[in-house]
Specification:
The protein has 488 residues and is of the alpha/beta class. The protein has a single domain, classed as Amidase signature (AS) enzymes, CATH 3.90.1300. 40% of the residues lie in helices and 13% in strands. Helix 7 packs antiparallel against helix 15 and helix 9 crosses helix 11.
Length: 488
């Protein structure tokens, strides 16, 4: 059962060939066996999972099956879950138990999913390897003995799905935090159009960039999860009142005389990537061309400036969002001699080094001396990038590019903060522009590790993004079954 895709499992559940309880128990047993080494979960909710599964079995038995009834999932520990601690992988919220449910997690409850637990991440979603987690880094299940990164910030979610500790998972993508970890764990990870999935009840990092999205083993599974997640939410002022047809099966977008223009970004041509990434990317572009796509070169003139703009805008918003953690209202409290001393001691003890670094940067660029010089300049670059994407989509229907420069690296890689930040080069521009992008496996590198490439679309063209990703998935045809990766 561990190797079943979500779509396969739904068919077997509907025919009652398997039960939701059997499916839940199989995943709980695998969590007990592998999570101590993988560290994919911060909190495991086995009792809740079995209760959810029993309720799903009863509905299926009564002919009242919901869209994702009985599917075991991991919830990134950034989404508030009523009665279950929500830590954001931080000492600051280590023992925080919310009394409310985030919109995304509530939508999954309504769809009938089974909650296995809360998955690990970078502290407050700030990082690239999930190494900044207060609870330790999750491990990539591919070649586990090498202790490779599962990526960040959604590294716990990708570790769980790739290893068969969940059938699907939620993530959040602020600058690539779904797509990069998905690419190095052989999974499909999508950053939907900004506003398509509600942020209400999701611990904020950078509010104008944070985008909840799905992580799964196949494109069809990702589409099924996105269908459950998406939808307008009056509680989120940035939620888009747009309905996409995500309930119907994905349709072929190439072949049978269908015309499709696929863009390749000119400015990425001179960015150094691994030989394997270049070879596989070229092969998949050639596959698209042979299937009938017209390949066109497009220009996003300021895309290489996106990284600098992102690391001004995101820390600025983070410094504002994280000001609420003061030791008074909720979370950690370290007593001081007076209220100001309490603030200082609580925040010094509660936040890790990377979170402190970004808050300091953000506070600096928002200061009166630096606001116009840095923050407003970054905002102008952001607008230029968004406009450039709009112009590019006048010349093509969809864009493809690498998800990252290469395969997963060891967790103990000796890199500076700037080198970690540079890993987001291929992903941050899509967050700044708010456009949908999905990372899909494009093949296996010479070191037998997976690589991913992105499909990018215009705003609210999420369905077509997934449809082209499905073609790439079929061309690559990698075997990402958990028992293939790790064994039984």
């Amino acid at each position: 059962m561990i190797d079943l895709s979500i779509t396969e499992a739904l068919q077997k559940l509907k025919s009652r060939e398997i039960s939701a309880t059997e499916l839940a128990r199989a995943h709980i047993e695998r969590i007990e066996k592998y999570n101590p080494e993988l560290n994919a979960y911060i909190t495991v909710t086995a009792e809740r999972a079995l209760a959810d599964a029993a309720a799903a079995d009863e509905r299926i038995k009564n002919g009242d099956m919901r869209t994702l009834d009985g599917i075991p999932i991991a919830m990134k520990d950034l989404f508030a879950t009523r009665g279950i601690r929500t830590t954001a992988a931080s000492h600051m919220l280590e023992n925080f138990v919310p009394e409310y449910e985030s919109t995304v997690s509530q939508k999954f409850i309504d769809a009938g999913t089974v909650l296995l637990g809360k998955s690990n991440l970078d502290e407050f979603a700030m990082g690239t390897f999930s190494k900044t987690s207060y609870f330790g880094a999750p491990v990539n299940p591919w070649q586990m003995e090498k202790r490779l990164t599962a990526g960040g910030s959604s590294g716990g979610s990708t570790s769980a799905v790739a290893s068969g500790l969940a059938m699907g998972a939620t993530g959040t993508d602020t600058g690539g935090s779904i797509r990069f970890p998905a690419s190095i764990t052989g999974l499909v990870g999508m950053k939907p159009t900004y506003g398509l999935c509600s942020r209400w009840g999701c611990v904020a990092f950078a509010s104008s960039l944070d985008t909840p999205g799905p992580i799964a083993r196949t494109v069809d599974d990702a589409a099924a999860l996105l269908s459950a997640m998406a939808g307008h939410d009056a509680k989120d002022s940035t939620s888009a009142d747009v309905h996409l047809n995500l309930d119907s099966p994905l349709q072929p977008i190439l072949g049978d005389g269908k015309k499709l223009r696929v863009g390749v970004i000119k400015e990425f041509n001179n960015v150094k990537i691994s030989d394997d990434m270049q070879k596989l990317f070229n092969a998949r572009v050639a596959d698209l061309k042979s299937a009938g796509a017209e390949i066109v070169e497009v220009s996003i003139p300021n895309i290489l400036d996106a990284l600098a703009a992102y690391y001004i805008i995101a820390p600025a918003e983070a410094s504002s969002n994280l000001a609420r953690y003061d030791g008074v209202r909720y979370g950690l409290r370290v007593e001081g001699s007076d209220i100001y001393d309490t603030y200082k001691k609580t925040r010094a003890a509660g936040f890790g080094d990377e979170v402190k670094r970004r808050m300091i940067i953000g506070t600096a660029v928002l200061s009166s001396e630096s606001y116009d010089v840095y923050f407003m300049q970054a905002a102008r670059v952001r607008r230029m990038i968004a406009n450039a994407f709009n112009r590019a989509f006048e010349q093509c229907d969809l864009i493809v590019c690498p998800s990252g420069a290469g395969t997963a690296m060891p967790l103990d890689s000796d890199m500076t903060p700037l080198e970690y930040y540079a890993l987001d080069l291929f992903t941050v521009a899509m967050n700044l522009a708010g456009v949908p992008a999905v990372s899909v496996p494009c093949g296996m590198a010479s070191n037998n590790l997976p690589l991913g490439m992105q499909v990018v679309g215009k705003m609210f063209d999420d369905v077509r993004v997934l449809e082209l990703a499905k073609h790439i998935e079929q061309f690559a045809n990698i075997d990402n079954r958990p028992t293939k990766i790790m064994g039984k």
